[in-house]
Design brief:
The complex is a heterodimer of chains A (about 220) and B (about 240). By secondary structure, chain A is an all-alpha fold. Chain A has one domain. Chain A has helices at about 15-30, 30-60, 80-110, 110-120, 125-160, 165-170, 185-215, 215-220. Chain B is α/β, with parallel strands linked by helices and about 240 residues long. Helices cover about 40% and strands about 30% of the residues of chain B. In chain B, helix 4 (about 120-130) packs across helix 5 (about 150-160). Classes of the chains: A mainly alpha (about 220), B alpha/beta (about 240). The interface between A and B is large, with 36 and 43 residues.
Chain lengths: ~220, ~240
């Protein structure tokens, strides 16, 4: 038994160990993880579909094609309309709030767990890293699925509007026509969607996790959700 | 001179609730010797759990000092406090506080992971500890699949993972029936007797009286009285005689 030996410094855990613990946690909490991830998927799917729809519209108009049905006057105009910008901004806000909310909930219901881990000798940094890894993985996979769903939605909508012409002028890559607005292209929008989803998930989860990790364990364990 | 393992000096803890200040501890002075079994007794809201948190470095006092193994806890760095919780103390809680995503075995290995023990050594130690608390056949069950008494046994095994010199138990029997509660008390007492672990338990379970070396009665955030083994025996005898 230790007798009045000075108290040593706690060691850092190897990265692999943190990775293992975070994946185990995701796996066992699979149902709950899926719901959180679905929140991210939905937000990004909405944003990407609106954005992509806009990209497709611009590309097709650049090519001189017109919507076969012409329901909206805007689709015949060149460039991004105010309404399109409005839609993209709105979907971005919905996406940010949705993801932040699902991550916040997912962390808050685990305050007791955070307190317990600290009782067992976890450093604050370890707790934050655990949530960073979990949310980064959830954010990336959720956003990737969301971006693909969103793209699919925009393509289907484009098919309805432009028919098979869509595939001849499909804006896969970024383009900068001389007299038109800059086009990001499908690939860049998907990548941006994934990046955004991941960043939002990581911020949305590590900020409350950091706050919980800073609390004395007694207080973290007292927190009722 | 007695070997003092825990000493508190005028410990005060205040909680701020809006504009009100609640004084949960109002200047606590106690000394606990190595190898003792101490029960902190008192009604709900008396401050015993708050004191328990102070001794276990789970919360910081508003005023006063806590010394453990002669170390002033307020002077430790974050890393030292984490190491202290990891190596020196084992915690047992009323609501078990097992991690729901880890099996019994996974819960017991976690403090050893934090301590940096190699995988093989910690697996062996976890099996040994779970065998000792009588859960050798349910090692890989999740906490949800275990009864209250079994969960508390897992918590005890986990508390012992890094061979702590102090075990802190906060109402360990409060959620258990009398028979299971008795078994848990006996298990904790055997750690005290066989391994010389200092036990500090917050409780209002009278069954704990039997096994305690001393009882510290807490009331309104103050030490009301401290009773020794002999005094307890007399009181228990009187109660039994009538």
């Amino acid at each position: 038994m230790q007798q009045r030996t000075p108290i040593e410094e706690q060691i850092d855990l190897p990265f692999l160990e943190s990775l293992r613990i975070s994946f185990q946690s995701l796996k066992i909490r699979f149902g709950r993880s899926i719901i959180t991830t679905a929140g991210i998927t939905l937000g990004i799917a909405f944003l990407v579909s609106v954005w992509m729809n806009n990209e497709i519209g611009i590309a097709l108009q650049e090519s001189g094609r017109q919507s076969t049905i012409n329901t909206f006057e805007e689709t015949t105009q060149k460039g991004i309309s105010t309404k399109d910008i409005w839609l993209i901004v709105m979907s971005l806000i919905v996406c940010v709030v949705g993801i932040a909310n699902s991550m916040l909930m997912a962390v808050t219901e685990r305050f007791r767990e955070i307190g317990t881990m600290k009782c067992l000798g976890a450093l604050d940094g370890f707790v934050v890293r655990l949530f960073l890894l979990e949310s980064g993985f959830q954010g990336f996979s959720g956003a990737l699925i969301g971006a693909l769903i969103g793209t699919l939605g925009a393509v289907l909508l484009g098919l309805k509007d432009y028919g098979l012409d869509l595939f001849f002028y499909f804006p896969l890559f970024p383009a900068q026509p001389e007299d038109g607005p800059r086009q990001l292209g499908v690939i860049v929008v998907i990548l941006l969607g994934c990046f955004l989803g991941m960043v939002l998930a990581v911020i949305g989860s590590s900020f409350p996790a950091w706050r919980a990790a800073k609390l004395p364990p007694a207080e973290a364990m007292r927190t009722e959700v | 001179m007695a070997d003092i393992v825990v000493k508190t000096e005028d410990v005060v803890k205040e909680y701020r609730m809006g504009s009100n200040v609640l004084r949960a501890l109002d200047g606590i002075n106690i000394e606990i010797e190595r190898g003792e079994y101490i029960s902190l007794m008192g009604p709900s809201g008396s401050g015993k759990s708050t004191l328990f948190n102070m001794i276990g470095a789970l919360d910081t006092p508003t005023e006063g000092q806590v010394y453990i193994d002669g170390q002033n806890m307020s002077q430790l760095t974050q890393r030292q406090i984490a190491a202290f919780r990891c190596h020196r103390v084992g915690y047992i809680f009323q609501s078990y506080n097992l991690l729901p995503v880890r099996s019994a075995h996974g819960n017991v290995t976690l403090p050893m992971i934090f301590a940096g023990l190699p995988e093989r050594a910690r697996n062996e130690k976890a099996e040994e500890l779970l065998d000792m608390v009588g859960l050798g056949d349910r090692m890989y069950h999740l906490p949800d699949e275990l009864s209250g008494g079994q969960r508390q046994r897992v918590a005890i095994a986990r508390a012992l993972a890094n061979d702590p010199s102090i075990v802190l138990a906060d109402e360990p029997t409060a959620n258990l029936d009398t028979v299971i509660g008795r078994e848990i008390i006996d298990l904790i007492k055997s750690l005290n007797e066989e391994q010389g672990v200092t036990i500090i338990s917050a409780t209002h379970d009278l069954k704990m009286l039997d096994v305690s070396d001393r009882i510290v009665d807490i009331r309104d955030g103050l030490v009301e009285r401290v009773r020794s083994r002999d005094e307890i025996d007399i009181e228990v005898g009187e109660v039994g005689g009538h």
